[in-house]
């Protein structure tokens, strides 16, 4: 489930996984894959003196194209991209089945085809300042602490957590890079 996080540019923003069978995530109107986000974080962590910005492939969906997440979860409103997603991958009948699938990356091709009906693929620039005080994703900026919360969310597997406590390889690589980084934006631990 996407949760509310504090940005320094836009106040409270939605960020996170929106369906347990895919590793696609959202940041308000931006939709992207968790593997790409984790690789971006790892790249910034391991090469902090590299280019000022790195790119994140994303889709930007206007509100009317997104649909109603809660309506789609409850099976009562299948409008837009979120509705189409929940038609394909409905919410589990049993609450115990509500865990983020570590194999969600396998649905990427299906999800790319689905979202392409709503928006073209674009590129967002992500960059961090040299002091480690903030990071920018497209039009959104986060403080060091706010960014840590985003990374911790992905590491945990979102609100439900990773199914069987199994993390995808890309999450483990992100963790190693974050914990080894010498850049002041990083250098925090991810436990669990």
For the structure shown, list the relevant keywords:
eight-stranded antiparallel beta sheet, 192 residues, single chain, 7 helices, globular
Short characterization:
The protein is an alpha+beta fold and 192 residues long. It has helices at residues 34-46, 63-66, 69-73, 80-88, 108-116, 144-156, 169-180, and strands spanning 3-7, 11-17, 24-27, 30-33, 53-60, 121-128, 134-137, 140-143. The protein has an eight-stranded antiparallel beta sheet, with helices on both faces.
The count of helical stretches stands at 7
- Sketch the major β-sheet: 8 strands, antiparallel
In whole angstroms, how far apart are the ends?
19 Å
Number of strands: 8
Task: Describe the structure in your own words.
The protein is α+β, with helices and mostly antiparallel strands. It has seven helices and eight strands, in the order ββββαβααααβββαα. It has helices spanning 34-46, 63-66, 69-73, 80-88, 108-116, 144-156, 169-180; strands at 3-7, 11-17, 24-27, 30-33, 53-60, 121-128, 134-137, 140-143. Strands 1-2-3-4-5-6-7-8 form an eight-stranded antiparallel beta sheet, with helices on both faces. β6 (121-128) and β7 form a beta hairpin. α1 packs parallel to α7. The longest helix is centred in the first third of the chain and has 13 residues, at 34-46. The protein is globular. It starts with a strand and ends in a 12-residue tail after the last helix. 36% of the residues are buried.
């Amino acid at each position: 489930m996407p949760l509310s996080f504090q940005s320094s540019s836009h106040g409270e923003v939605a960020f996170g996984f929106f369906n347990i069978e895919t590793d696609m995530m959202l940041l308000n109107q931006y939709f992207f894959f968790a593997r790409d986000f984790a690789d971006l974080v790892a790249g910034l962590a391991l090469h902090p003196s590299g280019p000022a910005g790195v790119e994140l492939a994303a889709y930007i969906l206007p509100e009317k194209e997104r649909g109603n997440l809660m309506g789609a979860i409850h099976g009562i409103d299948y409008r837009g991209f979120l509705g189409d997603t929940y038609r394909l991958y409905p919410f589990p009948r049993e609450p115990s089945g509500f865990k983020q699938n570590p194999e969600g990356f396998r649905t990427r091709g299906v999800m790319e085809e689905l979202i392409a009906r709503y928006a073209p693929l674009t590129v967002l620039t992500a960059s961090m300042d040299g002091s480690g005080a903030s990071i920018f994703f497209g039009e959104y900026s986060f403080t060091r602490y706010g960014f840590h919360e985003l990374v911790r969310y992905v590491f945990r597997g979102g609100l439900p957590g990773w199914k069987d406590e199994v993390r995808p390889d890309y999450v483990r690589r992100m963790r190693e890079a974050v914990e080894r980084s010498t850049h002041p934006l990083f250098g925090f631990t991810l436990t669990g």
